[in-house]
Structure formats: structure tokens, C-alpha cells
Write a structure and sequence with these properties.
57% helix; 18% strand; three-stranded antiparallel sheet; alpha+beta; 5 helices
């Protein structure tokens, strides 16, 4: 009778231990899997914004409709005028094309279901060069978010990624540089005192 009672107690303690340990092990496995998925999602989002910024900057000075091919439309060649860089009336529409491309690619290969997303594409003009900035922010719900809410911890996880690319136009840069040098020579011939000032400026630089 005593031996039977001991065996029963041992089985009972094993049952209690299993009831505590098994849920902890399962939650740990789920947490590890979710962390791996989050790491993949962040790396994928960064790759998407890098690609969108790179292709957008590459095709910015062209008449493009699709960033998948960056195809130049023959009928649009020359339609933008000679001085479109001073005031780019198509800036907003081109930013929208880049944003659509980024969102389309992100939705095609994303693996986690998001609850909120904010995307932004902005072109900054620094006179000497232009820079395209692409950012993406997505929020995801943590699987055990209900338990976290009980302890006052946010049940959402937000990933923010950002990428920048310079709009490289070597032909336009050379053209503008030559224009500035030509204007400088003409002004120096007309105003000799200006040559001394320019020479001093070059010396300082």
C-alpha cells in the first residue's frame, strides 16, 4: 500500500512538472520562430527600400512608367523641356511611381501579416545634387500579445527601414560645370577685378 502511494505521488509530481515545463518549451519554440521571422522580415524590407531607392534614382532623369524594366518611352523623349530640373512638375508623380513599386514588391514576398504600414518617398534637391530617400514602416502583432497587454507591454512590434540614393546625372553635371566656367571667364574678361577675387577663392578652397 505504501509502495503504491509512492508511485502515485511520483506520477503526480511528473504530471505537475510536465504541465509547467511543456508550455514553457512550446512558448520558447514559438518565440524563437517568430524572432527568426521578424529578422527575415526586417532584412527583406531593407532590401526592398534599397532596391526602390536605387532604381528610382537611376531612372529619375528618364521618362519611365515602370521601375521593373526602367523602360524609356520613345514618345516621351524631349517632352520635358530643357530646364525641367529647375522646376520638376513631374516630381510628385515620379515619387508615387517609386512608392507603388516598393509597396508592390513588398506585398509580393512578405511573409508576416501586418496590421499597419506607412511608406514614404521624397526627393531632396541640394542644388549640387539630388537625393532620393525611401522609408518603410510596418507594424505586426505579437502572437502572445494578449498576455503582454495584461502586463502593460505593447503587443505590437514595429519595423522601420530607410534607404537613400543619389540621383546621378554625369552628363548634366558636366554641362552645368562647363556653363559655370564659361560664365566665369566672360565675367572675368568684363570685370578684371573679379579675377583676383576668384583666384583668392580658389586658393582658400
Amino acid at each position: 500500500m505504501t509502495a503504491y502511494s509512492g508511485d502515485s505521488g511520483r506520477r503526480g509530481s511528473i504530471t505537475v512538472e510536465a504541465a509547467i515545463v511543456i508550455p514553457v518549451v512550446i512558448l520558447s519554440i514559438v518565440a524563437i520562430i517568430y524572432i527568426v521571422l521578424i529578422m527575415y522580415q526586417k532584412a527583406f524590407m531593407q532590401a526592398v527600400v534599397d532596391d526602390a531607392a536605387s532604381k528610382g534614382a537611376t531612372a529619375w532623369d528618364r521618362s519611365f512608367n515602370s521601375l521593373e524594366t526602367i523602360k524609356v518611352e520613345k514618345e516621351n523623349l524631349g517632352s520635358r523641356g530643357l530646364y525641367w530640373r529647375i522646376y520638376d512638375s513631374e516630381k510628385a508623380s515620379r515619387q508615387h511611381v517609386v512608392e507603388e513599386y516598393m509597396n508592390r514588391k513588398y506585398e509580393r514576398y512578405g511573409i508576416l501579416r501586418e496590421i499597419d504600414r506607412q511608406s514614404r518617398v521624397e526627393l531632396e534637391d541640394f542644388l549640387i545634387y539630388k537625393k532620393l530617400t525611401v522609408s518603410l514602416e510596418s507594424s505586426f502583432r505579437i502572437p502572445v500579445g494578449g498576455l503582454l497587454d495584461m502586463f502593460g507591454i505593447d503587443s505590437q512590434y514595429t519595423i522601420k527601414v530607410r534607404s537613400e540614393a543619389v540621383v546621378n546625372e554625369p552628363v548634366e553635371f558636366i554641362r552645368n560645370t562647363d556653363f559655370i566656367l564659361d560664365m566665369e571667364r566672360k565675367l572675368e574678361r568684363r570685370y578684371p577685378d573679379l579675377k583676383n577675387l576668384v583666384d583668392e577663392t580658389r586658393g582658400v578652397m
